[in-house]
Design goal:
Rossmann fold; Tumour Suppressor Smad4; 6 helices
Length: 310
């Protein structure tokens, strides 16, 4: 029905949709988010879809009778619709990647690089999706393992980035970095961002990292305010294994964070091993989606001197 390889535009299909059971979920329950949850539910039910709402979101909805399902059942759905910002999609993406269930986001947040359906286009976008007119992009995740004295103490995944930092403002840490057991450098800095192509337009971009197309099989390493001016962002092949050892930190509580949502406290001597996670997140996009158009609109690439747009 559709090409499941990475693609930037949806390809029309003359087959009907295969989404028989769809879950609609939301991490936050503001009025605007709940309005969109109800609208998605109504549109899908009108098309004969078996729609369920996650239990917590259903409890926040104003009245009505809704079919509900706990989050533990999301992996058995044909499609999961996440209503919210990219942060919500990051959280559900980490949970659902291993199941292979496609995920589509309705943007009720800020930039919305990942959540591609705008609230005002819910009807049109889902009509196209149910006609089989959509694209699926596979976005790989990073897996981070923290070892202490030879024992694994934490294992987490990240869709955007893994960040090692002092945990306190105006503090620095010192660490050593290897790529596939090949020594790269010792560094003193405010930390290190290790990002996937998906995460290159997030924290890594703010720290001066490059914008990477989501179809690239690569990982970017971005130092945060390093003490050496020649320490620049480094892009390595996606199959590489990165290893960071924490050497020193003063008056701080160092930590590793995944997507700025999951945090693990670190100690001197800890090692963080980062590599590509086994299963990608399958993000579904309605027709017309373009990475470059997203960059133009989200990053204001369309601006010209004098305030005019092209």
């Amino acid at each position: 029905m559709h090409d499941e390889k990475r693609q930037s535009m949806a390809r029309p299909s003359n087959r009907t949709h295969s989404f028989q059971r769809v879950a609609v979920v939301a991490r936050h329950h503001t009025e605007s988010i709940l309005d969109s949850v109800l609208k998605v539910e109504t549109v899908l039910q009108a098309a004969g879809i078996d729609v369920v709402i996650d239990t917590e979101t259903a409890a926040a909805l104003p009245g009505g009778i809704h079919r509900t399902a706990p989050k533990s059942e999301l992996e058995s759905m044909d499609l999961v619709v996440v209503v919210g910002g990219d942060g919500s999609l990051l959280g559900y993406g980490r949970d659902l990647a291993s199941s292979g269930v496609p995920v589509v986001g309705v943007n009720r947040g800020g930039l919305g690089f990942l959540a591609a359906v705008s609230p005002e286009h819910i009807e049109d976008s889902f009509a196209e999706i149910l006609r089989g007119n959509y694209a699926i992009e596979e976005h790989f995740l990073l897996q981070a393992n923290v070892t202490r004295k030879g024992q694994t103490i934490a294992m987490q995944t990240a869709l955007n980035d893994v960040v090692v930092n002092p945990g306190s403002p105006a503090r620095m840490l010192e660490f050593a970095l290897w790529v596939d057991d090949e020594y790269v450098y010792d560094q003193r800095s405010d930390g290190l961002i290790i990002a996937s192509p998906t995460g290159s337009t997030a924290y890594a971009l703010s720290a001066g990292g490059p914008i990477m197309h989501p179809g690239l099989d690569a990982i970017v390493i971005v130092p945060m305010f390093p003490h050496t001016l020649t320490s620049r962002p480094l892009v390595v092949p996606g199959e590489k294994v990165l290893r960071l050892r924490l050497l020193d930190v003063v008056d701080a509580e160092p930590q590793m964070s995944c997507d700025s949502q999951v945090h693990v406290q670190l100690e001197i001597g800890d090692e963080v091993v980062i590599e590509k996670y086994a299963a990608p997140l399958r993000l579904l996009y309605p027709p017309g989606h373009s990475f470059y158009q997203s960059c133009r609109s989200k990053l204001d690439w369309g601006s010209r001197l004098g305030g005019q747009r092209t």
